[in-house]
């Protein structure tokens, strides 16, 4: 999947991409290219060890800027201070246990460490290491130190590591790192306020099969649901995503994916897992109706016996996942009394706006919060950006300006956490 990036402003940013000496260093090349293609001025600052994995010439060609590792280069321009002072955003990917230890200790023994010592801009650190290193008490303590100092240390992905090892410690995909970094630069907060909380999210569209080949569906890509999972995981939550039809999206750090096809399957998966959830977010674009019967073999066009079956499809209503879950919560069936967030994909008409339709839906469904998107051709579904309004059960309405779906997800979680506290 190609990596794309969108700068938060129209003017180019000075982005520093730091690279530590790990096997995942090659992924930094995709990150550099993403920021460059967005119009940013990119400076790569690797460690000496990083250059054993990716050569200096590669980073210079991709960034269009000279590459240095030592504080003794360009001494006349005081490079070891200037790079950090001029930076609008610093992204370290991969960050090894050794680099994080040096940064936590306040070391300045190479250009990357010195750059971080003087930087006042947002800093995003993407760790990559073996599972045992990630869970080592020294690394855990160093990560906590960096987070307390305002540095964003994102959770590593779960997956195949170097050799035969599998587990947490894998560098997230470049697209995920770039999106999170842009969100942080745009002001998104990633506090650990969901630590220990269980989050259940629905994402993507559902397919209601007519026969083994044809189905009724929609254009939802699942991006917003996965973005909500990404932010929740980065804020410390234990995340489960019940996913219908989705694009080839990167799995949020540590999230469990439960794959379903139809609305009924999604309904069953949500009801099974709702009881021990602290937050439930219904971001999926589910089908309201399904064929009354599904043919066991492909219906043939033009066949006398099947002509009516294809031209007239009898539909029956699907179960209402959101309303049922709210009813179970209000009846005391859900042990953790979860905050429930709904979504409304609306189009306005000559009499009623999309927002007004969403306000009616919030009252009808009885959820705590509702994210309203005004959808249509080229809007929201399948796109990387979103906008709309966050409505709450107390009558509050917060406008969500046009932004990356990761940024929108951060605002939705801000609202959900604040509503639970209130």
Describe the structure.
This protein is α/β, with parallel strands linked by helices and 422 residues long. The chain has two domains: 14-185, Flavin prenyltransferase-like (Rossmann fold, 3-Layer(aba) Sandwich); 198-421, Rossmann fold (3-Layer(aba) Sandwich), CATH 3.40.50.10300. The protein is built from 14 helices and 19 strands. It has helices spanning 27-37, 56-63, 79-86, 97-104, 111-118, 131-135, 137-148, 174-185, 223-234, 263-273, 307-311, 321-330, 354-365, 405-421, and strands at residues 14-19, 41-46, 89-95, 123-127, 152-153, 157-160, 166-170, 198-203, 208-209, 215-216, 238-243, 256-259, 279-282, 289-291, 315-317, 339-346, 369-374, 385-392, 397-404. The model is unreliable at 1-9 (pLDDT under 50).
- Overall pLDDT confidence: 90
- Going by CATH, the homologous superfamily of the largest domain would be CoaB-like
Number of helices: 14
- In percent, how helical is the residue content? 25-40%
Question: Which runs of at least 5 residues are low in confidence (pLDDT < 50)?
Answer: 1-9
Judged by helices, strands and strand pairing, the structural class is alpha/beta
Strand content: 15-25%
How many separate domains make up the residues? 2
Please provide the count of β strands: 19
Kindly list the characteristics that best describe this protein.
14 helices, disordered N terminus, Rossmann fold, five-stranded parallel sheet, alpha/beta, 19 strands, 422 residues, single chain
């Amino acid at each position: 999947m190609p990596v794309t990036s969108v700068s938060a402003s129209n003017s180019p940013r000075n982005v520093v991409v730091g690279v530590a000496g790990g096997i995942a260093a090659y992924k930094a090349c995709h990150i550099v290219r993403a920021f460059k293609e967005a119009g940013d001025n990119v400076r790569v600052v690797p460690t000496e060890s990083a250059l054993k994995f990716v050569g200096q010439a590669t980073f210079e060609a991709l960034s269009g800027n000279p590459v240095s590792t030592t504080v003794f280069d360009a001494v006349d321009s005081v490079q070891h201070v200037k790079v950090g002072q001029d930076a609008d955003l610093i992204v370290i990917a991969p960050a090894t246990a050794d680099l994080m230890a040096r940064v936590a200790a306040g070391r300045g023994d190479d250009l990357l460490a010195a750059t971080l010592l003087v930087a006042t801009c947002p800093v995003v650190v993407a760790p990559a290491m073996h599972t045992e290193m990630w869970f080592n008490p020294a690394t855990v303590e160093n990560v906590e130190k960096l987070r307390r100092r305002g540095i964003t240390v994102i959770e590593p992905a779960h997956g195949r590591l170097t050799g035969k090892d599998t587990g947490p410690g894998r560098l997230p995909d470049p697209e995920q790192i770039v999106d999170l970094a842009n969100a942080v630069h745009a002001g998104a907060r990633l506090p650990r306020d969901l630590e220990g909380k269980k989050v259940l999210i629905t994402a993507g569209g559902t397919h209601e099969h007519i026969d083994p080949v044809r189905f009724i569906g929609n254009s939802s890509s699942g991006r917003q649901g996965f973005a909500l999972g990404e932010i929740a995981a980065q804020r410390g939550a234990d995340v489960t995503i019940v996913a219908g039809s989705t694009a080839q999206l990167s799995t949020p750090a540590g999230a469990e994916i439960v794959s379903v096809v139809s609305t009924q399957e999604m309904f069953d998966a949500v009801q099974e897992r709702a009881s021990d959830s602290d937050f439930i977010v219904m971001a999926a674009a589910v089908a309201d109706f399904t064929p009354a019967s599904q043919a066991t073999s492909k219906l043939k066009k033009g066949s006398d016996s099947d002509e009516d079956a294809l031209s007239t499809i009898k539909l029956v209503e699907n179960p209402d996942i959101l309303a049922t879950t709210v009813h179970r919560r209000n009846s005391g069936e859900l042990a953790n009394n979860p905050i429930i967030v709904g979504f409304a994909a609306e189009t306005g008409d000559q009499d009623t706006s999309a927002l007004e339709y969403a306000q009616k839906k919030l009252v009808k469904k009885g959820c705590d919060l509702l994210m309203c998107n005004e959808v249509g051709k080229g809007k929201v579904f399948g796109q990387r950006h979103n906008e709309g309004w966050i409505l709450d059960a107390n009558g509050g309405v917060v406008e969500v300006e046009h932004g990356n779906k990761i940024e929108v997800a951060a605002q939705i979680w801000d609202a959900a956490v604040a509503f639970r506290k209130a």
